[in-house]
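Throughout this review, each integer encodes one residue's backbone shape. One record appears below.

===
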Amino acid sequence: MPEGIVITGAKSGLGRFLYENLGGLGVTRSTVDADLAKLELAGADVIIHCAFNRLWGGDALSMYGYVKDNVLLSSALAGVPHEKFIYLSSIEVYPKNNALHSEAESLGMGAVNGLYGAAKLMSEAIVAQASPNHVILRAAGLLGGYSRRNTVMKLMTDHEPELTLTPDSSINCVLYEDVLSFIKEAIKRDEKGIFNLASSANATVEEIAAFFGKRPRYGSWRYDAGMIDNLKARAITGGFQDTSMDALSRFASEGAVR
């Protein structure tokens, strides 16, 4: 008997949130080898691949572990017999320029800014090749009860936030619950292809600080989320019509920090 829903990264972040709300088999770093062996025999109805190991020592010796935990894991999961494969990618696969980025854009590895985006783009290619029924979610910054301590979380929770970003850095935020709603609808409607899960407008770090009434110590790194076309995702669910500030307001009002 195949597993119904398989969710990787079930111990933290979005993967944990999806596992708590969708159930199924939750795959973690400590169970992945045993789970893969089981799944290779039994198969799965839907695989939702959220797991990603951001840790990299910055040197060539630690590169294999980074590739193994991310790109090679995507390849192993895509080889499991399944009906549908949903991969959590990122808007970081898009080049950092002044263009509006849509799912139809042809992307080259040379234009990707950083190892994280490159690893995501490689995994996208693996999933698209291995699974005829795939959904690739190019998500913006994720906000939910299990969010890591990023800039938004520091501004929300710290009394005197110390940031690495400049005040004019731009961020795009989406809520866990909106990603969950999209995934449910994508499974129900048997959607296929690539979708940008991003809010309709970015917010600057300075705007977010003002919203939370904070006066942070800013850093020197300027980040720009870029312009992301979310019309395709909005046609499936309405959650991405909000701006990033709308999403932040909802997040704060729901007291979602854990």
Summary: Residues 63-78 form the longest helix (16 residues). The longest strand covers residues 82-90. The chain has nine helices and twelve strands.
